[in-house]
Design brief:
Helix content is about 35%, strand content about 15%. Helix 2 crosses helix 14 (about 325-330). The chain has helices at about 10-15, 80-90, 120-130, 145-155, 175-180, 185-190, 190-195, 200-205, 210-220, 230-235, 245-255, 265-270, 320, 325-330, and strands at about 25-30, 45-50, 55-60, 65-70, 95-100, 105-110, 140, 160-165, 280-285, 305-310. Strand 7, helix 4 (about 145-155) and strand 8 (about 160-165) form a beta-alpha-beta unit. The chain is α/β, with parallel strands linked by helices. The chain starts with 8 loop residues before the first helix and ends with a helix. The chain is built from 14 helices and ten strands. This is Alpha/beta hydrolase fold protein. Pfam families: Abhydrolase_1 (PF00561).
Length: about 325
């Protein structure tokens, strides 16, 4: 999960002060409420070697359609996009939904590869998957870890990204910023990340993964009354043998309690500088984002065609809670 309160609000607010007015900012209330379970099913899972990984992914839509790559977050899985995928495939898009490293059927190709959850590693995973599938460029969409990864790809390799849909906006990690304390109420929202920083927390997550993640679902989306079948379907992805290693490393790395890999140092230095994203972008704010919901704190970091959309009554898992709105953002992002 992102932990929106940890963002560098001061720096982003200063940058946003000189930004132009949003191209468009709309607020959409949740009328019927989030669906308790996906209405559609993903197709059979395919596997492909891509960089460090053998990636498990779902695919839908015509093979010659405009490619869309949808990236999930923690603690979720590819089923967050079941309904979005059906909507986009029916419109002629080629939709690819991969399990991130440490989730589902995605596996490391070598036992010797570091089980690394840092943001640059996940960004390279996305590029390696595109290379393996012979996709020169694609629209990227994501939330939570997937949103961070999509932002990182758009910032580091803009030529590979024809459009970006990012829930919670510009959530790229700056390690130096993450060392700065926040107000107590903001720190309170990060309880699980501090828990993961301890040996007890690591052991607790390994022993109680599914119960722990269900609690996160509930806390992150308090108005989403998902059913047991929906959670159980996603929770199978946590049986991945590398899952706990990746999750624990991800959060410890963010707090500078675990090192990254030197091969990603140059990319992390670029991302730490908060490079502007020039590709067409639609950002989405939901109730989970709290003070950042209106998008103003990161507006200046998107310098290409841009819109911000606000979803009221929707929690953190935006594509599963509001599939039509997320799919509409994908279809609209390159039409600005």
């Amino acid at each position: 999960m992102n932990g929106f309160s940890r963002r560098d609000f001061g720096l982003l607010a200063t940058a946003a002060a000189g930004a132009v007015t949003l191209t468009a900012c709309t607020s959409t209330p949740a009328t019927a409420g989030p669906p308790p379970a996906p209405r559609n099913q993903l197709g059979p899972i395919k596997q492909i070697d891509a960089g460090d990984l053998n990636v498990g992914y779902a695919e839908a839509g015509p093979p010659d359609g405009q490619p869309v790559i949808l990236l999930h977050g923690w603690p979720y899985d590819i089923h967050s996009y079941a309904d979005v995928t059906a909507i986009l495939a029916a419109q002629g898009f080629r939709v690819i939904v991969p399990h991130l490293r440490g989730f589902g059927t995605t596996r490391f190709r070598s036992a010797n590869t570091v089980r690394n959850g840092q943001q640059a590693a996940l960004a390279h995973d996305a590029i390696s998957l595109m290379d393996a599938l012979n996709i020169p460029d694609a629209i990227l969409g994501g939330y939570d870890w997937g949103g961070r990864t999509a932002n990182a790809v758009a910032a580091l390799w803009p030529q590979r990204c024809t459009g970006l849909v990012a829930v919670s906006g510009y959530i790229v990690v700056n390690l130096a910023t993450n060392l700065e304390p926040l107000a107590p109420q903001s720190e309170y929202g990060w309880w699980y990340q501090y828990y993961f920083a301890t040996p007890r927390g690591e052991l607790g997550y390994r022993r109680n993964t599914k119960d722990f993640n269900r609690l996160i679902w509930t806390n992150a989306s308090p108005l989403w009354h998902f059913d047991d079948a929906a959670y159980d379907m996603a929770a199978r992805a946590f049986d991945n043998p590398d899952h706990a290693d990746i999750v624990i490393h991800n959060y410890r790395w963010r707090l500078s309690l675990a090192p990254g890999e030197s091969r990603y140092d140059a990319d992390e230095q670029r991302l730490a500088a908060k490079p502007p994203i020039e590709v067409p972008t639609i950002t989405i704010g939901s109730d989970f984002d709290g003070p950042a919901k209106d998008g103003s704190t990161y507006r200046a970091l998107y310098t290409g065609p841009y819109q911000h959309r606000v979803l009221d009554g929707i929690g953190h898992n935006v594509p599963q809670e509001a599939p039509q709105e997320f799919a509409s953002a994908i279809t609209d992002v390159t039409r600005q």
